[in-house]
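Course assignment 3, question 2. Fill in each field.
Student: A.L.
Task: Predict the tertiary structure for the chain below.
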Amino acid sequence: MQPLDLYKAIAEQYRKFDFRLERCLMTRETIEALKGDTEFLGSPVETAQIDAMWFSRPSGSDAVAWEIRLVSSTPVSLLEKISNAATEDERSAKFREMESRLSDLMNSRRAAIEEIIAENAGAPDDDESDDEEDAPKVKGNGRYK
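Answer field:
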């Protein structure tokens, strides 16, 4: 599925649960697909390191639930309740923190996936020595064959 189609599908899912789309974070590559538009799905677009969406909805009488959702076929998101009494600076700081946490999470997962791919592609393993390949193999009851 194309990134802009994923944005639309995710927005529709969240709309069903009364979340409001607040902002779309997009990488430069995704923004190029917008062909100059500065809004998408009725919300502002911001350049970011990851493709993600900000949603909000009331959470009780004194807070708002804010969720940042990675634009991916695999659902990954962070949710925080922010008090209505929080200042704009406090809210902005919390948003930056959440964006950073999501980006860090994705970078660590990407590194782990790349390591698994390298191991499965026959990449040399630092824990094995060449001498082990020539050693006789133990089978069954421990006797060499």
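Instructor remarks: The two ends are 53 Å apart (CA to CA). The chain has a mean pLDDT of 85.
Grade: pending
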